[in-house]
Every structure is written in C-alpha cells, then in structure tokens.
Design brief:
- Helix content is about 35%, strand content about 15%.
- The protein contains 11 helices and 12 strands.
- The strands form 4 sheets. It has a 5-stranded antiparallel beta sheet with strand order 5-2-4-3-9, with no helix packed on it.
- α6 packs across α7.
C-alpha cells in the first residue's frame, strides 16, 4: 500500500476500481489494508495489549459480531457514526478508537505476525452495532460556559440526526448527553441545537463528516486586504457554525485553543469583521460569559 495516494490519505484510491488496480499491481503482497470511517461504515476499537481482555472492551462499548486478532492484540469492529481517529482517549486503557486513516486487514501477514478474523465473518460487517459509549463525553466532561459547549452539542446533533427515527428521538439523545458537560447547557440551548440539526437534515444540508460547504461573497474578499487571512478564516468559521442565527457568541478562549491563533490575532480578526459591518456587538463579555454578536 506504499503508494502516494494512500500515504497522503486519498480514500478515492480505495474505491472498487482503485482497489482492483492495487491488487493487480501488488500480486505478491502478503498484506493489504482498508480505511475505517464514513466510506466503509466501520469504526474499530484497537486493543494494543494482548493481556487486555475483549470482554472488558465489550462491557464498555457493547458486543460486536466481528473480532479480528492482530499481532499485538485485537480489533473489535462497530458501525461508524462519525467517530474520528483517537489514539489513547483513555490514558489508563491500552485502546485506540480508529474511525479514520488506514489499518491492516485480515488475512494479512506482516513481520510481527498475522491478522485473522476470530469471531464472525465478512458478511457480519453489514450488521455491526454502533459503539455503546458516547466518545465526546470524554472531552465534554471538562467543558463549562465559554468552552464552546453549544458548538460541540450542535456538531454532535448534526452527526446523530442521521441515525434517529424522529425529532423526539434526537431531542431525547441530546438531553441525555447534555449531562456529560461539566456544566450542562440550558434547555433552550439544547433545543436550538436539536432544531438546527433536524432542519439541516430535512433540507439535505447536513454535511457532518464531509467537507463543509461555506459561501464567501466576493465583497468579503476585501477582508484579505483590511483584516488579513485570519479575518477570512474567522468569517468562514462563524458562517459554518452560526449562519442564520440571530445571535451567537464568540468564545475567544475556546477558539484560541481550537485553532491556535493566539488571543491577539483572534481579536484583530474579530474587530476587522466588526469594523467592516459584517458582525456587530450585542453584549460585551463578562468574567463569566463571552461576548454576544449578531450578523450585521
């Protein structure tokens, strides 16, 4: 699999035609791989310690019909529902969550050993259960006001809405997982997140897990001259998360941590948007609450 397209993460190479060409090119290869994630519909719990039992993982994440033995442990397969690639999400457990990138597939043979399906078959991949554990809860347990809780809830609802049968199911899911925050959102904020996710799903605009579509008007290109690329980046971020909202907050601390711009650069970008009349300040920030803005 040491081709340029695979090494750079181009999953198009793993479509049927691309996979066939790879198989023809490397007829003598002893190993091959695949890409967990949205395209394959698979997420793996990767156990990196042979002494760490499968039963312990299934008690936490649910039982799965497909288990793969690896040279260093096991892969437990589940249905992908937007999970990303998380290496050691639990510091005290020798497991990774593989919802992206590439992994070696059975029956590959590598220097360290073999990959073998020890439970189930390829046919069972069509009926995988989802992970029973809400992984965002790991991060949410540290989030309080000003840490981007509402945006996190909206993103989670945007992913979850694809798998529920009704608006009520989504609302129930959001209300339950709102308690994972160190400081839960208000009922109104949860409802807004649910309403938004349900609306974009019904209108065919739910791009969760895909490349986000953002429109920037030609007039906004003057930001490059007056506000610099940081202002353009901030505008696209605000449009992706808050377009159509009457009010929204710019949680400076959370955005600095998320994007690494630094407080000075982020404030300059925010002020450039305000000076150009793109956004306007509604309520100033307080020691306990970020500033509130509206589209101007």
């Amino acid at each position: 699999m040491a081709t340029r397209s695979l090494a750079t993460g181009d999953t198009r190479a793993l479509a049927l035609r691309g996979s066939r060409k790879l198989a023809e090119k490397f007829r003598d290869a002893n190993a091959f791989g695949y890409a967990p994630g949205a395209r394959t519909g698979i997420v793996l719990v990767d156990i990196d310690d042979k002494k760490y039992g499968i039963e312990r993982v299934e008690e936490e994440f649910g039982t799965t019909p497909v288990v793969i033995k690896t040279p260093g442990g096991h892969h437990l397969a589940y249905r992908h529902r937007g999970e990303s690639r998380r290496i050691r999400p639990y510091p005290d457990k020798p497991i990774d969550i593989i919802g992206g990138g590439y992994v070696v597939a059975p029956p590959s043979r590598v220097a360290k050993g073999e990959y073998e399906i020890v439970r189930g078959s390829l046919q069972d991949l069509k009926n995988l259960p989802p992970l029973a554990k809400f992984l965002d809860g790991i991060r949410w347990s540290k989030m309080r006001e000003g840490d981007g809780r509402y945006v996190a809830m909206r993103h989670a609802c945007q992913r979850e809405v694809r798998y529920v049968d009704s608006y009520e199911d989504l609302a129930d899911w959001a209300t339950t997982h709102n308690q994972d925050f160190a400081s839960p959102l208000s009922d109104v904020e949860v409802q807004h997140a649910v309403d938004w996710a349900w609306t974009v799903q019904q209108e065919g605009r739910n791009w969760a897990g895909q490349s986000q579509r953002i429109t920037v008007e030609a007039a906004s290109l003057k930001l490059v001259m007056s506000g610099g690329p940081d202002a353009v980046f901030l505008l696209m971020d605000l449009k992706a998360h808050h377009w159509g909202h009457k009010r929204f907050v710019i949680a400076t601390r959370a955005m600095v941590d998320r994007y690494g711009l630094g407080f000075t650069r982020l404030r300059r970008a925010r002020d450039a948007l305000a000076e150009l009349g793109i956004i306007k300040l509604i309520d100033r920030a307080t020691p306990t609450r970020p500033a509130t803005y509206a589209w101007a």
